[in-house]
Amino acid sequence: MEPRFLIDTNILIYYFNDHIPANTDKLVDNIFLSSFNISVISKLEFPGWKKFNAIQYRRAEDFLKGNKK
Question: Three-class SS string for the chain?
Fold first, then answer.
């Protein structure tokens, strides 16, 4: 069985702001391409992050709807 990951709000924010450390960015990319879950709380918190501009907000919503980054 393929491992599944639970992604929290901070990981989503770091990912969307390209702040994932260089030594783990490929791993995170692979997780997002394979099998992961986002909690209901993170789905509410993530788009409400106060530093998103309008374009980033739309990207975040698309991502949560299943349309990748």
Answer: CCCCEEECHHHHHHHHCCCCCCCCHHHHHHHHHCCEEECHHHHHHHHHCCCCCHHHHHHHHHHHCCCCC
